[in-house]
Structure formats: structure tokens, C-alpha cells
């Protein structure tokens, strides 16, 4: 279970040809992407039908949110069988077809793996619930505890501690009559936590990984990893003094110092990473990205702890700064410098893994506005490592207001006061201006389609050179065909304007790309974070404007830059403008 610290490993050079370098990973929430059988819910065959769209955008890998058999208490994150497909989404054969079509387009497949908990309908839980007797082989597969005697001894025993579930903020313990004990559920009551201190559980999850690796998947997105390791003494969580009632999720009334994030998590993840390193799976690069939102006030340290605690050849943590950090040039500048500087010191194989949106957080255009959504596209798509794009972000989709009678998300139902339910960012993909945005032929879909679908959809945006989709397509193709953006380093520039972030991506060594175009060895990126124009100087020699949020060649900026002549020039960016230059 012990993993040698990467600090002790000899640093080999950066490996070329790893699909994770410069990957554009498109996150598909299968319920909402494309319905192929007219039931109002997306499915695997729907994804297969849309594979060319992904290829045209320059997508190099897919992360598929859960499609396993599930009673859908948390829309698939409550898994009832790790080794099958829910009939709602299709069959194993459909999964194989989807993989084959992705493979033809050189698109890798990462699937969601949910190791912390199962559905209460999983056979392991059903068996485990039956009895606490030693004869029950599943008795220790979940976190069962006796209750605490109530003070007057009259009532049912009280829960073992004050832990709360992350979805509703209610108690994380549920009484089970059959065993006369409580079981722990860090999420919905129908998602009991597996007992990760039990080696049999760990082996069972590794067996599930092998099942999918044998089918050819390239990796996993590993769900909710911090909860896998909790205080073995089950001590109370401490009170969070910063909690604001009615504004924050009820869950955040406590810090989660004991209910999650204990150090064993790195050992458990390393064991999972070891599966990816098994001889049988060395035919191609396999990789996993772990989901852990930094809890403390030092996110950098938390990210880096994962890079040290897991083998960076096979695993990386998500970097969620794009979801949480304020949209300020100085914050980004400081973070990028510290983060990339530290990764280089830890191990040259570390893979940064940025996500700016996902199925749990409000859409970017809703959070930061449409102008920032455009400039953040340039940031995301020119960062090193893996970048994750949540379906519909490429159209600038916004959160949809969900009327109470249509609410689906258990988090919204359990904690309605916070108003932070997740349905708004999970609405159907907007393909065209026809019935139900081309998502389904059914009368209605599982969630309402956004009102703006008639104008904001794939068909219309692909005809508009100034659309968000075209911006993403340009960036996607650039990223896919550029050895520099794939493998190059990032160097943060000192800029004499506090509202501008600037960096250079450059090749450390020559890398052959499939592109027929001559490879640019250096790109300079400048982003104006403010709603006012920004003037600054740079000594980077700029050759050609490659991509701009404001239309290539149509902005004030181009008139001020003559290709590749002198240095130290003044540049002007329009409000929220971001640009990519080929540089010398
Ligand atoms: C992760 C998923 C989220 C889910 C939770 C429980 O955070 O992204 O959607 O509700 O885990 O599995």
C-alpha cells in the first residue's frame, strides 16, 4: 500500500506521446446530451451519433458521467452494479459501439468511477444489511455503527456523531432496523458509504476497474475521493464559524475535518493507480483524475499533496480553481505561477487537470457572465495538461431556472433554502432550433430545455463566425494540432497592468505533430480580466494574431501590432478581450 514519494524518483524527461498532455476532455452527462430512443433521457447511442461533432471541436477524450445500473436517487452516482449499463442508457454492446466510434476518431474514453458509496440497491449493501453476524461475509463492507444511548435511555439510540451528508446537510447516519445499527451515508440516504478500510472492498472496486479496462477504457474520473478516508475514531466535525445560514449549503455549517480527507485516501488511490500499471494494461496509457474540492484555505497545498501522494504517471487531481477563484488577473497570475512552478519541482510527469465547469456547479456564463465565458475559453484552452469542457459550455449555455414542480436533484430537494440545486446546469444540450432543441423526439425531456435554445444552439452557432462555438472550435483545433500547446511549458509574464494576465507557452524540445501546418514553437496569451480597455507593454515578439475573443483581425489590437518587428510595444485589449498570438 505504500507508494514511494515521487520526490525520490529519478526525474526522467517528459514523455512524449501521452494523450493526457494537451488533452481536451469533453464531459458528457449522459442523461442530457442526446436521446436516441425518444424517452426524453439521453443515452449511449445518442452519444455515438454525435461523435463527429466532438471530433470537429478538437475533443481528444470524453469523460462520461455514470451510466451504470442505478435507481437514480443521485442520477447515476448511486451505482447498483459497477459492471453493467443501465437499460435507460443502453447495453454493454452500445457501450462497445460508442467506444469503437470514439476510437476511430482517436477520442479516448474516461468513465466515472464512484468508489466511496454504492446505491442501497447494490447487492453488496443488501447482503451487508442482513446481519452483523461474523458469518455474513459482507458485514463490514459498509460503515455500520451502534448508536449512542439517548440520555433518558427511552428512545432509539442517537447517531454515533454529528457528521452531515453533503447533499442535504442532514444527519449522515441512517438507522437500519434489520441490523439495529446506523449506516453512514456521506451523500444521499440512498448512497451508503463503502468501508474502505476493508481490503475486500478495495479489491472489489479494483475488480470493477479491470472490467472496464479490459473493455478498453483509457481511464477514470474518480468521484468524491476525500470521503473514502475518515477518522477511524469517528470524532465529531468541528463547527464552521464562517457558515452563513440560508446562503451556504447546510452541509457547510461544519468543517469536514473528521468525516473526510484523512491521509489514508492517498494510499487507497495509489492502490487504484496500481491497477492502471498492471502489465496487462501497459498496451496504452491509462490514467485517472480524482475529484476533491479543497476544503481548507490553502488549495495549492491540497492539490500538490495529491501529486505527491499518488503516482503522477497514472493519476492527477482535478484543479478546481476555475470554479472557485475570483476572476482577477492577479489571483490567476499568482496561482498559475505557484502551481506550475511546484509541479515542475515534484515530477516532470505531473499532469495539470483543469475544469472550469461541471455538472455540480453553476454554468460559467451564469457565474461570471457571457463576456468572461469567452475570455475564460481562451485561458482554459491554452493551459497545459488536461482541460475539461462540460457539455454545452462551448455554446455559452446558461443555468436554467427550474420551477419547483420540475426539480429533480436530491440536493435541491433536501436543502431547498440554499437555492443551490444542480438541475439548472444539467438541462438538455441545445442542438438546433427544432422540437426540444433536437435533444429528444419525446414531448418533454427529464429537465426543461433552456428558453434561448432557438438562437443558442449548435446549428445556428456553427454558421456564425463570432459565436462561442466557433471560438471553441478554433481553440480546440489549435490545441489538438499544436505540439507547443500539448507539450510546451508555461511561463507567466510580468505585465505592467494589474488587469491583464499574460503567459507564454513554448516548446522545450521539438515534437513531431500530425499536423501538416508548420508547428509554431511559441504562443503568447493575453487576457484582459476587466470590463474596461487595458493597455500594457510586452517584450514578447508577436508574429501573428491566431485567435481572439473579439473576432480575428476585427479588433483595435491588430492595428497596433505589426507582425514580428520590434519588441516592447504597447498593446491594447478591449474590455474582457483575450488573444492568442504566435510569437517569436
Ligand atoms: C460527486 C459528483 C456529484 C455526486 C456526488 C456523490 O461530487 O460529482 O454529482 O452527487 O459525488 O456521488
Name the CATH superfamily classification of the largest domain: Glycosidases
Number of strands: 18
- Let me know the average pLDDT: 92
Content-based structural category: alpha/beta
Q: Which CATH top level class of the largest domain fits?
A: Alpha Beta
Level of helix content? 25-40%
Tell me what portion of residues adopts beta-strand conformation: 5-15%
Main beta-sheet annotation: 8 strands, parallel
Q: How widely separated are the two ends? A: 48 Å
**Helix segment count?**
17
- Name the bound molecules: alpha-D-glucopyranose
Per CATH, what is the topology of the largest domain? TIM Barrel
Q: In which order are the strands of the major sheet placed?
A: 9-8-7-3-2-1-11-10
Computed CA radius of gyration, to the nearest angstrom: 24 Å
User: How many discrete domains?
Assistant: 2
CATH architectural grouping of the largest domain? Alpha-Beta Barrel
Overall description:
The protein is an alpha/beta fold and 584 residues long. It has helices at residues 30-33, 44-49, 51-57, 92-104, 123-130, 199-214, 264-276, 299-309, 321-324, 329-346, 364-368, 370-381, 410-414, 458-461, 468-481, 483-487, 556-559; strands at 24-28, 61-64, 108-113, 144-145, 173-176, 181-184, 219-222, 287-290, 315-317, 353-355, 386-390, 489-492, 500-506, 522-528, 534-538, 542-548, 569-573, 578-583. The chain has two domains: 5-118 and 199-480, TIM Barrel (Alpha-Beta Barrel); 488-583, Golgi alpha-mannosidase II (Immunoglobulin-like, Sandwich). Helix 4 (92-104) links the parallel strand 2 (61-64) and strand 3 (108-113). The two termini are 48 Å apart. Bound molecules: alpha-D-glucopyranose.
Amino acid at each position: 500500500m505504500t507508494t514511494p514519494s515521487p520526490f525520490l524518483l529519478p526525474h526522467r524527461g517528459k514523455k512524449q506521446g501521452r494523450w493526457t498532455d494537451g488533452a481536451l476532455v469533453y464531459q458528457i452527462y449522459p442523461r442530457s446530451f442526446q436521446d436516441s430512443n425518444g424517452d426524453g433521457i439521453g443515452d449511449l447511442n445518442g452519444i455515438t451519433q454525435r461523435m463527429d461533432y466532438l471530433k470537429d471541436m478538437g475533443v481528444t477524450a470524453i469523460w462520461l458521467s455514470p451510466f451504470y445500473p442505478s435507481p437514480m436517487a443521485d442520477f447515476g452516482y448511486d451505482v447498483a452494479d459497477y459492471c453493467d449499463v443501465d437499460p435507460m442508457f443502453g447495453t454493454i454492446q452500445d457501450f462497445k459501439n460508442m467506444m469503437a466510434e470514439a476510437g476511430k476518431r482517436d477520442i479516448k474514453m474516461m468513465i466515472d468511477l464512484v468508489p466511496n458509496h454504492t446505491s442501497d440497491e447494490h447487492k453488496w449493501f443488501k447482503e451487508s444489511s442482513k446481519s452483523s453476524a461474523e458469518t455474513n461475509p459482507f458485514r463490514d463492507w459498509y460503515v455500520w455503527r451502534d448508536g449512542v444511548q439517548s440520555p433518558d435511555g427511552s428512545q432509539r439510540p442517537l447517531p454515533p456523531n454529528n457528521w452531515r451528508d453533503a447533499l442535504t446537510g442532514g444527519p449522515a447516519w441512517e438507522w437500519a432496523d434489520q441490523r439495529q445499527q446506523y449506516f453512514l451515508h456521506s451523500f444521499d440516504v440512498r448512497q451508503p458509504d463503502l468501508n474502505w478500510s476493508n481490503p475486500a472492498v478495495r479489491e472489489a472496486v479494483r475488480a470493477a476497474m479491470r472490467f472496464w479496462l479490459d473493455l478498453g477504457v483509457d481511464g477514470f474520473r474518480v468521484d468524491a475521493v476525500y470521503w473514502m478516508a475518515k477518522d477511524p475514531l469517528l470524532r465529531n466535525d468541528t463547527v464552521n464559524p464562517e457558515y452563513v445560514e440560508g446562503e451556504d449549503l447546510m452541509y457547510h455549517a461544519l468543517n469536514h475535518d473528521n468525516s473526510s480527507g484523512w491521509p489514508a485516501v492517498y494510499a487507497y488511490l495509489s492502490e487504484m493507480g496500481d491497477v492502471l500499471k498492471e502489465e496487462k494494461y501497459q498496451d496504452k496509457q491509462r490514467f485517472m483524475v480524482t475529484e476533491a474540492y479543497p476544503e481548507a484555505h490553502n488549495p495549492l497545498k491540497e492539490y500538490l499533496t495529491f501529486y505527491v501522494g499518488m503516482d503522477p504517471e497514472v493519476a492527477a487531481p482535478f484543479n478546481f480553481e476555475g470554479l472557485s477563484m475570483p476572476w482577477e488577473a492577479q489571483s490567476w497570475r499568482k496561482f498559475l505561477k505557484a502551481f506550475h512552478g511546484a509541479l515542475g519541482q515534484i515530477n516532470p510527469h505531473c499532469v495539470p487537470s483543469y475544469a472550469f465547469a461541471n455538472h455540480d456547479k453553476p454554468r460559467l456564463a451564469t457565474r461570471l457572465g457571457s463576456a468572461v465565458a469567452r475570455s475564460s475559453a481562451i485561458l482554459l484552452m491554452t493551459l497545459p495538461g488536461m482541460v475539461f469542457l462540460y457539455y454545452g459550455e462551448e455554446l455559452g449555455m446558461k443555468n436554467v431556472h427550474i420551477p419547483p414542480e420540475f426539480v429533480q436533484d436530491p440536493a435541491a430537494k433536501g436543502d431547498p433554502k440554499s437555492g443551490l440545486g444542480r438541475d439548472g446546469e444539467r438541462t438538455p444540450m441545445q442542438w438546433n432550433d427544432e422540437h426540444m432543441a433536437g435533444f429528444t423526439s419525446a414531448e418533454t425531456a427529464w429537465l426543461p430545455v433552456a428558453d434561448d435554445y432557438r438562437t443558442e444552439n449548435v446549428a445556428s452557432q456553427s454558421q456564425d463566425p463570432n459565436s462561442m462555438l466557433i471560438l471553441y472550435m478554433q481553440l480546440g483545433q489549435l490545441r489538438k494540432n499544436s505540439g507547443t500547446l500539448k507539450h510546451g511549458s508555461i511561463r507567466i509574464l510580468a505585465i505592467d497592468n494589474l488587469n491583464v494576465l499574460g503567459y507564454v507557452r513554448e516548446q522545450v524540445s521539438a515534437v513531431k505533430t500530425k499536423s501538416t501546418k508548420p508547428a509554431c514553437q511559441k504562443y503568447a496569451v493575453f487576457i484582459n480580466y476587466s470590463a474596461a480597455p487595458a493597455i500594457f507593454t510586452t517584450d514578447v515578439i508577436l508574429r501573428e494574431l491566431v485567435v481572439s475573443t473579439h473576432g480575428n483581425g476585427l479588433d483595435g489590437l491588430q492595428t497596433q501590432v505589426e507582425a514580428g518587428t520590434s519588441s516592447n510595444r504597447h498593446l491594447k485589449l478591449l474590455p474582457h478581450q483575450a488573444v492568442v498570438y504566435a510569437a517569436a
